[in-house]
Amino acid sequence: MPQAAQKTNTREARFQAHYAAQWVARYGRSYLPPQKDDSHTSMLWNPSAKLFLSQSSMKGSLALDLPTLTLFWLDPKGTFGTGFSLDGKTETQVEKTLGGMLAEVGLGANRLKTDLPYELDDHDIGNGGAYDVAANADGLNQLANNFHLAATLLGEVKKREEGAGPVRAWPHHFDIATLMTLEDEDDPEEAKSINVGFSPGDGNYAAPYFYISPWPYPDASDLPAEPKLFRWHTEGFTAAVIPEAMWPGEEQEEFLRSGLMEAILACKALLK
Predict the structure, then answer these.
(1) Phi, psi (5° rounding) for residue 178?
(2) Can you spell out the DSSP letters for 174-204?
(3) Distances in Å between the alpha carbon of 104 and those of 94, 97, 107, 122?
(4) What digits encode the pLDDT tens for the residues 149-187?
(5) pTM of structure
(6) What is the C-alpha to C-alpha distance for residues 150 and 210, in angstroms, rounded to an integer?
(7) Quick check: 163 and 185 in contact, CB under 8 A?
């Protein structure tokens, strides 16, 4: 079982890792067949190595080790190949080094697309600054632990809940989630669903949090009062959330497991 996450400030580490994760997404956007849901740019969590993996092509996949911000190449058998740390490198230098690494495995460096269809939070890295692993070592390790815990719990949700899809991490908001589809509809926007996920922090909450979001959003007046293991969020989106401030120091994993279950049941009741 993964160790319980400790309450460590991972804000700067999150920014560094979020920018680093875009290179995994760029690989998917550049070399994999596009998918309607943009899942070709999503990442998978490898529980044994505790790192992010791109979706795989016939050539292999690109991996990101969070504690060291190292990009690795994996062949189709999962064997680690060449790699390099982003530490001390600017985005321009990463692009050049990654292009050379991909060329070595038979992928044209000129196909690597660097433009993103969304904006990231403003940060020194996006303005020509370099990645700094040493200064953020504790935060990056904690970030990896948090994602590992989240992937474990969300994997359990996927196995338990009918209609739950793959557990994927998404580069835009840098979250990891499984989407539970409760009914089949030709238009996914019309289908009832529950998105169950984890964010390491964002514009809504500076610290990590889990979210369980029903769709379509119910009216705020219909939300049951005084939940025990989560709270309701209604600004911008509607979701049951379990922010880090609620996580206990002991038995953290069991608390979160129970909280997710309680919130899922509450959302199912709202969507009946």
Answers:
(1) -125, 140
(2) TEEEEEEE-S--SSTTTS-EEEEEEES--SS
(3) 15, 11, 7, 33
(4) 999 999 999 999 999 999 999 999 999 999 999 987 667
(5) 0.94
(6) 8
(7) no
